[in-house]
Amino acid sequence: MSQIVKKSLVITSIAGSDNNVLQDYAKKSMEHKVHLIVVGDAKSPDDFNLNGCDFYSLSRQHESGFSSSRLLPENHYSRKNIGYLAAIQQGTTVLTETDDDNYAADGFWNYRPGEIEAELYENCGWLNIYRFFSEQHVWPRGFPLSYISQPDNFISGKSHLCFCPIQQGLADINPDVDAVFRLVSPQPVVFEKRSEIAIGSGTWCPFNSQNTVWFPEAFPLLYLPSFCSFRMTDIWRSLVAQRICWENRWKILFHEPTVWQERNKHDLMCDFRDELPGYLNNAEIVERLAKLSLYAGPEHIAENMLLCYQIFIDMKLIDKKELVLMDAWFRDLCKLR
User: Fold this and answer.
1) Cβ contacts of residue 113 below 8 Å, gap of 6+?
2) With pLDDT > 70 as the criterion, what percentage of the chain qualifies?
3) Which residues on neighbouring strands pair with residue 144, listed in sequence order?
4) How far, in Å, CA of 190 to CA of 192, rounded?
5) Is-contact 169 129, C-beta < 8 A?
6) Would you tell me how many other CB atoms lie within 10 Å of the CB of residue 235?
7) 244 near 301, Cβ under 8 Å?
8) Interval 222-276: pLDDT, tens
9) Which of these, 99, 141, 256, lies nearest to 190 by C-alpha position?
């Protein structure tokens, strides 16, 4: 008997219910029978009310019973963790996440199974996936600047059937690039429509939280760290997730854009400052993660995550207080199983 697919969409936002993107997602979520969860924060309006949207105000988060809620900092992207927990609590089997400035394009609502045919790249080191989908010199946020001019290693070959419990879709117009790219390169960026590509053991490429699908096996890896900048939280999560996926022979899938971004207002120099820890340290982080001795099997994800995040603490990139939040995350997950 095939498993019943229950889809959820998680967004964090401080916008009001008049936000055009949220209205569009609410309408289309109802049409596609997707449970839309919007996670608010301290700056969210008190009168948020949008048909088709399950809104978690700060007070509702605190009343949810999740021990993480009162520990997570306010006015931080990591409050999205509560949305993940709420979706898991409600029985989701496919969890999609995006942001309130990404419009859904054709294909966003389509179902991709966890096991999928894709061109597979392993043992390639740093691999700039954006160059697979574009002739433009573009790279994803979190990709080390020292590697952006290296030759492309894409050799079209045989597709493999890969289990990909984490699947990253790209974004058109304003893709998820770093402040350096936005300051010096032409925009907008429109990616080519190409077949899926997967990366496995020995290959690294950051993925973000703007158009990402997660399957239950990888749900524990959803955890967003709090004691780091907004511009690094999902990137560092992605590096940890990739390293742990290796131990389970899981792959990370990347596919053509299914959203386009009309970017919220940003101060690019503030973005640059918040991205500095990544520019300066991501290459070393990956070197250290690759050398870790981790445990095989999904039952060891919690142990492996602690070992991975200890690297960030040892490098003084994340405060050791993060371990308290991670403990709460796993206690909350255990209650939901």
Assistant:
1) none
2) 99
3) none
4) 7
5) no
6) 25
7) yes
8) 999 999 998 999 999 999 999 999 999 999 999 999 999 887 777 999 999 999 9
9) 256
Q: Which two tokens stand for residue 314?
A: 């040892």
Burial class (CB in 10 A: 0-12, 13-18, 19+), 106: exposed
Q: Which residues 6+ apart lie within 8 Å of 141 measured at CB?
A: 176, 177, 178, 206, 208, 231, 235, 275, 278
Q: pLDDT, tens digit, for every residue of 68-79? A: 999 999 999 999
Contact 115, 108 (CB under 8 A): no
Tokens of 85: 């927990």
Report percent pLDDT > 90 for the chain.
90
Of residues 15, 19, 12, the one with CA closest to residue 73: 12
pLDDT band at 157 (very low <50, low <70, confident <90, very high): low
User: How many angstroms separate the CA atoms of 123 and 200, rounded?
Assistant: 8
* Tokens read off for 118: 């894709």
User: How far apart are alpha carbons 159 and 191 in whole angstroms?
Assistant: 21
